[in-house]
From TrEMBL:
Keywords, in A-Z order: Apoptosis, Cell membrane, Cell projection, Cytoplasm, Fatty acid metabolism, Hydrolase, Lipid metabolism, Membrane, Transit peptide
Family under the similarity heading: Belongs to the THEM4/THEM5 thioesterase family.
Name used for this protein in its record: Acyl-coenzyme A thioesterase THEM4
Protein source organism: Actinomadura rudentiformis
Catalytic activity from the UniProt record: decanoyl-CoA + H2O = decanoate + CoA + H(+); hexadecanoyl-CoA + H2O = hexadecanoate + CoA + H(+); dodecanoyl-CoA + H2O = dodecanoate + CoA + H(+); tetradecanoyl-CoA + H2O = tetradecanoate + CoA + H(+)
Membrane topology: Peripheral membrane protein
EC code: 3.1.2.2
GO terms under biological process: fatty acid metabolic process
InterPro entries: HotDog_dom_sf (IPR029069), THEM4/THEM5_acyl-CoA_thioest (IPR052365), Thioestr_dom (IPR006683)
Length: 160
């Protein structure tokens, strides 16, 4: 695929591509992207790891509409963010999204199942570079490139 990455989401020379580990439990089920208890969430489930590529899928429902009958772009971006986040999680450290670049290539109708794939293109210090794509009926519909930043555990401490 043509990479969507800009200079900010392209790893520098010398960045390494680590092996992914099977995802450890997140111990948090309220996440919009993957939480079982997030009633309005998209509930992505890790479905496979093909070498260095993580795979998952979700089905677009009416609550995800933007234009009538079509998925809202923000939902598709959130799904990609989650898929990329799952890869960052499988790098074995804690990361948050710093920058997310998204290309929307075809409209995605309600009822579509979006097959998502995501992978790491390099890690350089605290920075992890990730890319991903979503296919509908075998056609590339959305793709993303992102920069994730490693954060300390305190980043996730509950706020008042
Ligand atoms: C499938 C299911 C499985 C389960 C898996 C669950 C997975 C979970 C899924 C998760 C769900 C999905 C995930 C989510 O939804 S994560 C939620 C959305 N993201 C956030 O809330 C992050 C908010 N931002 C911050 O907290 C801070 O800004 C961070 C921590 C990111 C950096 O602040 P910090 O003070 O710590 O560091 P720094 O500012 O010195 O920056 C460090 C370096 O990084 C560079 N930089 C920073 N930002 C950008 C940028 N935008 N473009 C380009 N570069 C950027 C910066 O220039 C610097 O570079 P250098 O000067 O060192 O060269």
């Amino acid at each position: 695929m043509t990479t969507p990455a800009s200079a900010k989401t392209t790893p520098p020379t010398g960045a390494v591509v680590p092996a992914l580990k099977e995802p450890p439990p997140t111990e948090y089920d309220g996440c919009f992207g993957c939480g079982d208890q997030a009633s309005d969430g998209i509930r992505l489930k890790h479905t496979g790891l093909d070498g260095k590529v993580a795979e998952t899928a979700f089905t677009v429902v009416e609550a995800h509409q933007g234009a009538p009958g079509l998925a809202h772009g923000g939902i598709l971006a959130a799904a990609l963010d989650e898929a990329l986040g799952s890869v960052a999680w499988m790098l074995g450290k804690r990361y948050v999204t710093g920058r997310l670049e998204t290309d929307f290539l075809t409209p995605v109708p309600v009822g579509s199942t979006v097959q998502l794939r995501a992978w790491c293109t390099g890690v350089d210090g605290r920075k992890a570079y990730l890319e991903g794509e979503g296919h509908v009926d075998g056609k590339l519909a959305v793709r993303a490139a992102a920069l994730f930043i490693e954060v300390p555990e305190e980043h996730f401490e509950e706020r008042p």
